[in-house]
Amino acid sequence: MKTNVERKTAILAVSFGTSHNDTREVTIDAIEEALKNACPNASLYRAWTSKMIIKKVNARDNVHIMTVSEAMKQMKQDGITNVLVQPTHVINGIENDLMKEDALAYKDSFDSISFGAPLLTSEEDTNKVIEILADEFSWLNKKQALVFMGHGTTHFSNSIYAALDYAFKDKGHPNIFLATVEAYPSIDSLKRLVDAYKPEEIVLAPFMIVAGDHAKNDMAGDDPDSWYNKFKAAGYKVTPILKGLGEYRGIQELFVEHLKTIEK
Length: 264
Hints:
By secondary structure, the chain is of the alpha/beta class. The chain folds into 2 domains: 125 residues, 3-Layer(aba) Sandwich (Rossmann fold), CATH 3.40.50.1400; 122 residues, Rossmann fold. It contains 11 helices and 8 strands. Helix 5 links the parallel strand 3 and strand 4. Helix 2 crosses helix 11.
């Protein structure tokens, strides 16, 4: 324990990352700004967990986005003694587990390393996210169905997506649905539930921090297998909204709440 030096605190904001600068600026950047404003005396560092995206963006944009390991090394070099790691991940999935492993490999280099929670960690988080999104889409009428596209994972935490779909309806929003692009509930399961509701219009929106490849292609793209075209082929009017969760002020504030929970 360092007792004879000044304690220096830093926030390490960890995101999966995106190669789409347009959505990054209004999602990841906005969340990081909110975190920094909430803890003005702490330095802010950025790390991404997708090495493929890091490699692509660093080469294309001539920047250097760090991995978690690189960020930990940089903070040690900069004399940081206390690290507040705040992920912008949606769930406690594979990326979050690997992030913790990478950070804790440097536990002997710092006085403390604390981890803030991903977006959906507690029942309270679930209720707040439902409230935030129901408010953002308060203009919906009962003839419209709002369909969110989550990412999905092989991690056991994937069950949160089906639970959240149920919770939307339990909280009085029978026309809000949630499925995933890579796991369960799938678009096929989702479509059966939406068909049973019998809406006149489908509003599509990503349930992901950024509106990147999945949102632009798998959700709203021109491919016949995109969610947009699957619903169109079924005879629905379809309106895609390319707005990542990170754009919503309420979501940014929820990440800030998670950070403040671990701030010493």
